[in-house]
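Hello,

Our lab assistant flagged a job as stuck in the queue for most of the afternoon. It eventually completed. Since we weren't sure the result was trustworthy after the delay, we are filing this so someone can double-check. Below is the sequence as submitted and the structure that was eventually returned. Let us know if re-running is recommended.
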Amino acid sequence: MVRLWGVAPLALVAVIASSAEAGVYKVRDAVGGESVPGRLDAFYLAGTGSSPSGTNFGSPLVNLPMGTFDFEIDFTGSGSSFEQFRTYCLEPTQELSFHDNPTDDEGALYGTDTLMNSAPGLTALEASRIEILWANAFADSMTSNIKAGAFQIIIWELIRDNTFDLNAGLTRLSTSNATSIAITAQANMWWANIIGGTWTDSQPLLALTSPDSQDLIIPVPTPGAVVLGAMGVMAAGSRRRRSV
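-- returned structure --
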C-alpha cells in the first residue's frame, strides 16, 4: 500500500532533520524492476527506464540511464518494515550503494537534510521549483519513460547548471537522438508550466542522504512516519547508553 504524503508540522520536520546523522531510514531496491542499457541492475519502475544520449559532466555525450526509481523504504530504521517508495535521483554523480534484492535485503542507512544542503549550488528558488514539479507532475512522470526522463532531467539541470537549457551546459541531452529529443520536449513543456505560473501547487520535499550512496528525494513524511523514525532513533540511543 502506498503511503499518503502530507505536510508535517514544523516541530516534526525539525525532529526528522535533527535525526539525519542517526540513519533513521533504510532504503533498498524493490523486487523486480527494469534495467536499461548502461545499467546491469533493475532499479527502475517498469515502463519508465530509458538511456538517452546525454551527459551530466559536460563531457562527450554518453548513454545516460534514467527513470523512476522503484525502491522500498523502512521508516522505523529497523529493517523490518519496508514499504513501496518511488523517487528520483538528487545526486547524479554518486552511485547507489545497494543492489538488486535479494542480495541486499536489509537496506542502506539514510538520514535526511534539505535539498539545498544535499545539492550544493541549488538555490532556494530552484528547490521550490522542484517542489512545484513534484506536486504537479510526479504521478504523471511514472506513466512513460519519456515523462520519467523529463522529470529527472529537470532536477539534474537545476542542480548542475545555472540556466535552464537542456541542450547546453554540464547537464544536456543530444539534439539528434530520438529519445533525447522527446524527453527534452516534454521537460520544456513542464518547465514552462513551472516558471509561467500555470502550476501553483507545491509539495515540501527533503533529501534522503548517505555519505556512501546516491541521495534521493522524499516528500516531507506524514507526522506518523516522522514519529516512528524518531522513536527508532531514541530507541537506538537508549540501547547505546545501556551498553556503555
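-- support follow-up --
The delay was a queue issue, not a problem with the job. The result is valid. The longest helix spans residues 223-243. The chain has a mean pLDDT of 83.
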